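Practice problem: predict the structure.
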Amino acid sequence: MAKTMNTSTLSCDNRLEALKAWLCGCLKTTQFHITPLAGDASFRRYFRVQHNNLIQIAMDAPPELEDSHSFVAIQQHLAACALHVPKLYHVDLAQGFILMSDLGDTWLWHEALSQNTADLYQKAINDLLTLQRCAAPQPLAIFDANFMHKELSLFTHWFLEGYLKLSLSNAEQTLLTSIFSQLTAAAETQPYYFTHRDYHSRNLMVLATGDMGILDFQDAVLGPITYDLVSLLRDCYVTLDSAQVQGHLTYYFQKATALGLLPADNFNSFQRCFDWMGLQRHLKAIFIFARKWLRDNNPNFLNDIPRTLNYILAVSSQYVELADFHVFLNTRVLPAFEKIYPS
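Answer:
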């Protein structure tokens, strides 16, 4: 291992130099080539490292901003569950550097945009069921009402008030408080299992073997059973048609009930849980996309807001309890959004 240095407050360029120096120590050579990869909505950065006819991935996760301890602990848990996650070769938690195996370049996202992927989604669902059946490593944060309310309040702050510049009336604030409470209450009625929290097409890799590789798992919690499923089937980055969603949802329900993860007698109740969990998930995603622009000057996720907002509009139109929220979305949110982001 390379000699540890304090890199927590270094600039990105200085952290890259520190990462290169660390790799020299790990690889016992200066003869390697490092290439940046597309990032995600966090402060982590990834690089492909080529050396001695090998290709590996280096992760740069500033320790004051990202928790690499969780990444390592959960990687070990998922590997023990026989799920396909990157192998860890070198870990430096003090600096926030990890060298791991490369799961390739083929995201489920790529495949979903180009071909019929029913079999791939079934594999992803089967892996999700395996993930949920494995006893969660302890301790994991619990995705409870306080957790959810915090995320939903950030939707108000970053998207409604920050991005859209809406000034909310007392009645509108009361409406949002009521809706947020209904969503969190509905989520808490569900069985709780290990929850990835970002189980979607940009974190699932199609491996050469045909298996699914799983990335970006460090923020896992104990959470409602439908959370990862709605992340997969109502993905912020790719749209499946309603027939595909219902087919995969039915497939999951049948498998989950056979495994004893869910009661087998009420698909309609399960559908409602799935729909309402999606509202919470998508409200959270939208505030993150807006925050990446407003706080981090990163516009890369703004194009994903329309799809995500459309999910919210569609679900809110289907339940009488959400009728006032749907009116608020159509009369206040959508017009303000279309001024900023015309279709």
